[in-house]
Specification:
Elements: E1 7-10, E2 13-16, H1 24-36, H2 39-42, H3 52-69, H4 73-76, H5 86-94, H6 101-106, H7 114-120
Length: about 130
């Protein structure tokens, strides 16, 4: 199954069709799916499973990656993405409503508790402690 035209996942890798124009945000989102997949399933990943928690984690991962790479919020949550809900996602993240970041934290990929982060000397989300689950 190809979720986004020009992008596919095969054996845990994101493949890009060089003939298609790809939004940076779409590429980061698909990479997020690979990154948040359980390690024992990653190498066999050939399509994105329809699991709400993993979708939310992929969105949060892609936001952290976009910040790291300097991809603007409106290129991550572009008008043609997220099945017509990109504006809502952009507003949530712009206001600090980091949907899915708690799930990344539960997997040890980031820290969302400021007090804990300060005690451990860790940065908080959108900074990542690990990019792979």
């Amino acid at each position: 199954m190809q979720a986004i035209e020009g992008l596919s996942i095969r054996q845990g890798a994101v493949l890009i069709d060089p003939e298609k124009a790809i939004w940076p945000g779409d590429l980061l989102h698909e990479a997020g799916h690979v990154a948040v997949t359980a390690p024992e399933r990653r190498a066999d990943l050939n399509e994105v499973p329809r699991v709400l928690a993993e979708e939310m984690m992929a969105i949060a991962w892609s936001y952290a990656a976009a910040r790291q790479c300097g991809v603007p919020l409106r290129e991550l949550f572009h008008s043609e993405g997220y099945k017509g809900r990109s504006e809502f996602a952009a507003q949530c993240y712009a206001m600090g409503g980091y949907v899915g970041a708690d799930l990344l934290a539960a997997e040890g990929m980031t820290e969302i508790d400021l007090g804990r982060a300060l005690r451990l000397g860790h940065p908080t989300y959108p900074n990542m402690l690990r990019w792979l689950r």
